[in-house]
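Try this one yourself first.
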């Protein structure tokens, strides 16, 4: 069960121009969507993370100030790609963020990224899991560890997403835009007078 927000608007007594917004936490039930639709939506989110990582990527021998955030973006793109692949078989992925577990589940379903999967995908996944130990890509972790080269990670993530999108197209989800599955309201601050 997850917690959502109930948003209600009512007219403020002080000003009839701007309604008063009241945000109240509420419990909501998780909706189940068809796995094919979940596969497409999850793939699209993976592609967003991959695109963000590729835009930040600078080939500077992993010494960039942004290398941990970039690794996190690739890690999450790969995780979502694995989950999209599993959804494409009408299965629920393991509730885990461990890439090795998700990769094993995908391999059982027939995922092949290239002729050297074990040394390419397998090693990158193992090294990324090692680097993310204790959420190491998001939080400071004083422990030593191993990481795959950033350019190797980038190449493998791109190859993986190309294979996953072919699988999603094979099950009939080819259009760029699908049916709506949810809505997100974005709230911002009130602009100052005279500025927009």
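Now uncover the answer:
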């Amino acid at each position: 069960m997850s917690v959502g927000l109930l948003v209600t608007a009512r007219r403020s007594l002080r000003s009839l121009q701007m309604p008063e917004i009241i945000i109240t936490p509420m419990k909501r039930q998780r909706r189940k969507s068809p796995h094919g639709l979940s596969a497409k939506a999850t793939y699209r989110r993976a592609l967003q993370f991959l695109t963000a990582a590729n835009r930040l990527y600078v080939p500077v021998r992993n010494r960039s100030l942004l290398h941990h955030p970039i690794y996190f973006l690739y890690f999450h793109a790969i995780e979502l790609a694995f989950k999209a692949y599993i959804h494409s078989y009408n299965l629920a992925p393991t509730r885990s963020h461990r890439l090795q577990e998700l990769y094993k589940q995908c391999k059982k379903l027939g995922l092949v990224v290239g002729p050297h999967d074990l040394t390419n995908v397998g090693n990158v996944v193992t090294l990324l899991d090692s680097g993310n130990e204790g959420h190491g890509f998001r939080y400071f972790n004083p422990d030593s560890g191993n990481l795959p080269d950033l350019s190797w990670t980038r190449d493998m993530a791109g190859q993986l997403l190309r294979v996953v999108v072919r699988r999603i197209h094979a099950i009939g989800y080819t259009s760029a835009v699908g049916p709506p599955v949810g809505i997100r309201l974005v709230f911002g601050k009130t602009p100052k007078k005279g500025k927009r």
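Discussion: The chain has a mean pLDDT of 80. Residues 70 and 103 are 21 Å apart (CA to CA).
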